[in-house]
Write the structure tokens for this entry.
Amino acid sequence: MNIKQNLINIKSTLPVSITLVAVSKTKTLREIMEAYNAGQRVFGENKIQEMTDKYEQLPKDIQWHMIGHVQRNKVKYMAHFVNLIHGVDSFKLLSEINKQAQKHNRIINCLLQIKIASEDSKFGMTGNKASSILHSEEFSELKHIKVIGLMGMATFTNNQNQVKKEFLLLKNTFEELKQLKTAPDNYRDYQLHTISMGMSDDYLLAIDCGSTMIRVGSSIFGARNYS
């Protein structure tokens, strides 16, 4: 498995405006350093403990993204270093991230996770819920988080039409929330510019549908070993 060549191949297909998150969950420090030495600086993990262990042992110019489901009681372990939290699916979680970021005098970037898949196993909120959060007075009081966009996970299916429909739902939700930002009574300035959608199997389709950030693991590192 030539990680460097895989990265070169993928990046050659990407517009310059796309951020590539290399999904390094279950991967060794050596494998991550191979990608790092090939120029990759943004890595995504879905377990906070694993990400924290890697953060402590790897170069400090790596941007760590938390892309998995986040339990509120574990936010404190990553609050001092995490660059972006993708899966924010409730106001309570936003509030906890804000509280822990404040302890480290940081502002943590967040993406609101929108449920676009038909599968019950996927987390996320509705577009209406996201709108009500962004326009609430409680949200305006959170000074240590910054909502910079949305994240979504499509249904795990070979039906590309369904996946496309779900990606377009996220893009449309993003555009609607950006429009709402112009409300004159808005309490808080938030800048939505990131749409995190698309993985190894469907990132090109996601980009066609408006993605600005893709999460790619197996196409870079090979199949995961969970043993």
Remarks:
- Residues 45 and 226 are 14 Å apart (CA to CA).
